[in-house]
Amino acid sequence: MIKIAPSILSADFLKLEEEISSIETSSADMVHLDIMDGNFVPNITFGPMIIKQIRKITKLPFDAHLMIKNPVFFAPLFVEAGCDMITVHAETEIHLHRTLQFLKDLGVKTGISVNPHTSVDFLKYVGHMCDLFLIMSVNPGFGGQNYIKSATEKIKKVKEIREKYNFNYEISVDGGVNDKTVSEVIKAGGDIVVMGSYFFGKPPDERKELVSHIKNQLA
Ligand code: DX5
Ligand code: ZN
Question: Which candidate among 10, 32, 61, 112 keeps its CA 20 to 30 Å from the CA of 141?
């Protein structure tokens, strides 16, 4: 069944505790944490300090999407703060294979993300080392952007590679996923959909229905 990963990037930070509890009551599967450094992407968000705080109020898995340079330096801090999954961008890593091994040794699930222009052929060499492959369907940095169509073809390709090489990673799709695009994403092969503005744009009492609608739609 499809998993939903609401991104708190679009949450109301003045009500963060209520926003996170709405993720739990909606029956979504994990909390997506968009970490931005103002260097790899033109925006800055939050870091381990905030994550340590919110770790106290939920048992949901924390899916950290590191849009930062030098993720190897910061990854242990995110693990210590309570992240269960660490995703790095292929574009930041000269030695991606080594980075994935480093993350594995930290005892967390490992993920690779790619920007919209990045090809995925390299995946055949590292696909056995990752638990998650996160396809960016917008240029990273901001919530509320439009889905970039070419992501659909990439989802299919990443699924084909998984089948061909017998890999086990889950395919996650991040950016512009909403009521208009979600079925295309799921049909192409997405296992996890990240949702920021669409999920948090709904009043909290409508989020459960949104999640069950998506899960049942193409179950
Ligand atoms: C963008 C982030 C996304 C973003 C998605 O850099 O990685 O996770 O929050 O937001 P929406 O769903 O609004 O496109
Ligand atoms: Zn993200």
Answer: 61
